[in-house]
Design a protein that fits this description.
Glutamine Phosphoribosylpyrophosphate, subunit 1, domain 1; 3 domains; three-stranded antiparallel beta sheet; 18 strands
Length: 271
């Protein structure tokens, strides 16, 4: 599955988990197909919770490993993020940053000293798109998944009691051999696997007992929601790479998806 995830980005890769109260992070500026050949992976005993990421750089060189995911804090918070945060400079202000990537802003908000629901704070303060997974060494058997304007797909295997999540369902289906079953034209499902698509602007928290919460949030007005960003020749289009809606300026020589960061040209719309 980690190998297949390489299709989402080949500039860097990494994974993280918690073992004996310690946060363990392995990452490097290499493809996931290369990272799985290293000792950290080949000697790995499967932990209860793991998060993975493959990176297509849009900001910050992969040669600085601090820019690569998973990102983490000294207090043991750790995330992987897909999407693009537009107001990270506003979040940090003059504060020293560990790296150069917009995803840092998510960690900055999650680790702030503000009391209350930290996920709500993320939706309140951040502009842009995000689908991220969060683990915390202080809660080693808890996984938090958050979705705003970026895909997040889940499969639960009730035979093995394992929850899988990914930005693309096919990356889960292929290595696990998941196929739809039917009889006399009736869909019988996918065996012991059960597929769920996370709803937009929701956070799912899972612990050792199962689903702890599935909560809806209301985001700060989007980056493209401010009137000054709109022009008569701008259109909302479906990005041909991540399939999310983004702004397209017909008069510009250069457009970039506001969700996945891929450059978009007119020829990308035609097959």
């Amino acid at each position: 599955m980690f190998n297949l995830l390489e299709s989402r980005g080949r500039d860097a890769s990494g994974y993280a988990f918690i073992k004996e109260g310690n946060l363990i992070v392995h990452k490097d500026g290499i493809r996931s197909s290369e990272l799985v050949k290293t000792d950290g992976w080949t000697k790995l005993s499967l932990p209860k919770v793991m998060i993975f990421h493959t990176r297509m750089k849009t900001q910050g060189s992969e040669k600085n490993n601090a820019n690569n995911h998973p990102l983490f804090t000294k207090n043991g918070l750790c995330i992987v993020h897909n999407g693009m945060i537009h107001n990270d400079d506003e979040i940090f202000g003059k504060q020293q940053r560990d790296a150069e990537v917009d995803s840092e802003a998510i960690l900055a908000v999650l680790s702030s000293k503000t009391k209350g629901d930290k996920i709500k704070l993320v939706f309140d303060k951040l502009e842009g798109s995000f689908a991220f997974a969060l683990i915390d060494k202080n809660n080693p058997e808890k996984l938090v998944l958050v979705k705003k304007d970026n895909p997040l797909e889940l499969y639960y295997n009730d035979d093995d009691d394992i929850l899988y999540f990914c930005s693309e369902a096919d990356i889960i289906r292929e290595p696990l051999g998941i196929h739809k079953n039917s009889k006399r034209g009736f869909n019988l499902g996918e065996g012991s696997f059960h597929h769920y698509t996370m709803e937009n602007n929701y956070a799912l928290t899972v612990n050792h007992e199962g689903v702890e919460s599935y909560k809806r949030y209301y985001p700060r007005k989007d980056y493209f929601g401010y009137p000054e960003y709109y022009h008569k020749d701008e259109l909302m289009i479906e990005c041909p790479f991540c399939l999310e809606m983004t702004m397209y300026h017909d008069g510009k020589l250069y457009n970039r998806c506001g969700n996945c960061g891929q450059p978009i040209n007119e020829e990308d719309f035609y097959v």
